[in-house]
Design a protein that fits this description.
Strand content: 5-15%
Number of strands: 11
Strand order of the largest sheet: 1-9-8-6-5-4-3-2
Largest sheet: 8 strands, parallel
Structural class: alpha/beta
Shape: globular
Order of helices and strands: HEHEHEHEHEHEEHEHEHHEEHHHH
Helix content: 40-55%
Number of helices: 14
């Protein structure tokens, strides 16, 4: 049986973590990944507090295995989410988009394992100093919100591994077992995967969005809205509107007005492929089918173990 610091920390069989994507990562997806031996994560960033509590309870009913909740630290109802997580005894929390010092002590005092998502080795050091048990090093290939540094996973993972002693989970541009092995060779002890699980049967994202993801190709995503919060978007009419505004030097206020409210919900959850915000990673170009989450998890693991055992291919 495979064992390293990540599998022992989370008490899982496979060091595969499903990312907590907004409008995609509900209890069905999280429980399916956990039941398949990975770590399922509920994405709380698109949930009202009562909705999160319901998803946590449904997840506990659907799996006896560990699962976690992702909390963006900029979320306005964060305190209520924390209360829910503590009261419902969620074992693992992954925090992102903020200072890990805000929540880590409170969560740790309640026996919760804490992981923080970072985009640089400097932020990784701060997470370690805050008491986090592990970090997710997310390269800018990833979908959703990203770091402004635009450091790729291939560079970021070894830099973070060199900077901290706590376990590192690689994220950004990973959707298959060979990519997982590459991340592990760089020093990571696990991988966090988002885009591949968006294109799963259990993801709560709209079927229109899933189909757009598997139809996308190389160059169909771009990191945008750097004045607000950098986010990788699938190119559509909304993207073109943002691009035009940024090309003419639009202010933060104008960009915020274009973004408006509930734009991500419109695209990813309601399926408006023109006017919605469609967040997805570069690796979507490698995806061509929607599969059950258990099949995705097992396939990645089998590809990883096969690649691990295969001799290095050389070309003369």
């Amino acid at each position: 049986m495979f064992s390293n610091r990540i599998t022992r920390l989370f008490r899982i069989e496979k060091p595969i973590v499903q990312a907590g994507m907004i409008w995609a990562s509900g209890w069905r997806l999280a429980s399916a990944v956990s039941n398949a031996g990975g770590l399922g994560i509920i994405g709380s960033g698109s949930m009202y507090p009562d909705v999160l509590r319901e998803h946590v309870r449904q997840c506990k009913a659907a799996t006896s295995r560990p699962f976690g909740v992702n909390i963006p630290l900029l979320y306005p109802a964060m305190d209520e989410h924390i209360r829910t997580i503590i009261e419902e005894k969620v074992p693992i929390v992954i925090t992102s988009a903020g200072n890990p010092r805000l929540l880590t002590p409170v969560l740790k005092d309640n026996g919760i394992t804490v992981v923080h998502v970072v985009s640089s080795s400097r932020f990784a050091e701060k997470a370690a100093e805050a008491g986090c048990d592990a970090v997710v090093a997310e390269g800018f290939e990833a979908g959703g919100h990203n770091g402004r540094e635009e450091t790729t996973t291939l560079v970021l993972v070894p830099a973070v591994c060199r900077a901290v002693d706590i376990p590192v989970i690689a994220a950004g541009g990973i959707a298959n077992g060979r990519q997982m092995l590459a991340a592990m060779v760089l020093g990571a002890e696990g991988v966090q995967i988002g885009s591949r699980y968006v294109a799963s049967e259990e993801a709560s994202s709209h079927p229109n969005f899933k189909e757009a993801v598997i139809r996308s190709g190389e160059g169909d995503t771009k990191l945008m809205l750097k004045q607000l919060a950098p986010v990788r978007l699938l190119k559509n009419a909304f993207y073109q509107q943002v691009q035009a505004a940024e090309d003419r030097g639009a202010s933060r206020e104008e960009l915020q007005e274009i973004l408006g409210r509930a734009r991500a919900k419109k695209g990813m959850f309601e399926g408006d492929l023109n006017e919605g915000e469609l967040e997805i990673g570069q690796v979507s170009a490698l995806l061509d089918e929607i599969l059950p989450a258990a099949v995705i998890t097992q396939r990645i693991w089998e590809e990883f173990t096969a690649a691990l055992q295969a001799p290095l291919q050389t070309h003369s």
